[in-house]
Amino acid sequence: MAVEGLNELDVLKIAIGAEEEGHRFYIEAAGQYDDPQIKEMFLHLAEEEMDHIKTFQDIYKRVSSEEGRSVYEEPISAYLRALSETAVFNTNGLTNHRVRNVSSVKEALLIGIQAEKDSILFYETVQNHTKHERTKKVLSRLIKEEIKHLHKLRMLIQE
Length: 159
Fold this sequence. Notes:
Distance between the termini: 48 Å
Structural class: mainly alpha
Strand content: under 5%
CATH class: Mainly Alpha
Helix content: over 70%
CATH topology: Ferritin
Number of helices: 5
CATH superfamily: Ferritin, core subunit, four-helix bundle
Radius of gyration: 16 Å
Shape: elongated
């Protein structure tokens, strides 16, 4: 069964949707806890997700005005679709209810860790297959930010 190739705009829509789900998750997680440090950490992560949304929206505007957007080859398109559909912060809303069922801070942090790993994997794949140097640079910066988030969440679990 052939998979329709994704173009850069499709991939950017997926990234925006995933970041929106992440923002929603962290806002809801912040509302679940009274501890000011935990609440602040989740609100900070939500704010950073909002920054990522704006970044991807800016890239989307730039790419949408360009002629001849490249299309990712079928295997890469299929892989990116699979990543986006099964990620913790996915584009089909399958997991956005998870925060309501979280029973501990550790569980919320583990969800965040998995989501950051999903994002890194998705963004690295896009970065490795895009032809736009500016997009590669932006993705490189976002990957570094996601790695910082991952590290921050891991440190919080250890504490």
